[in-house]
Amino acid sequence: MPASVAVSQDKDSIKKLITDFTTAYNAVNALLREQTKYDSASKTAGALQGDATAIGLQNKLRSIIGGSTSLA
């Protein structure tokens, strides 16, 4: 019995995945920014201000987003 296979791009699913990722990335970035900031006007620091792990995570996320890759 012959079989038929159709392949197509699911652009709506791809768009949703990218949108969901962007929303999640922005939320994590905003949280890290808020928790690592120092407000000189009120002289208050976020709970993670100066925390090397939080700052390292922020930098790593930025480098991943700003990086590039090649698809073979």
Provide the fold topology.
Elements: H1 11-36, E1 38-39, E2 44-45, H2 52-66
Antiparallel strand pairs: 1-2
Helix pairs in contact: 1-2
Structural commentary:
With 72 residues, the protein is mostly helical. The protein is built from two helices and two strands. Strands 1-2 form a two-stranded antiparallel ribbon. Strand 1 and strand 2 form a beta hairpin. Helix 1 packs antiparallel against helix 2. The mean pLDDT is 91.
Mean pLDDT: 91
Order of helices and strands: HEEH
Radius of gyration: 20 Å
With helices defined by DSSP (H or I, 4 residues minimum), what is the helix count?
2
Strand proportion: 5-15%
Overall helicity:
55-70%
From the structure provided, what is the oligomeric state, counting identical versus distinct chains?
single chain
Q: Give the class from helix and strand content and strand pairing.
A: mainly alpha
Give the end-to-end Cα distance, rounded to a whole number of Å: 35 Å
Which stretches are poorly predicted, pLDDT < 50 over at least 5 residues?
none
Characteristic terms for this protein:
2 helices; mainly alpha; elongated; single chain; two-stranded antiparallel sheet; 72 residues
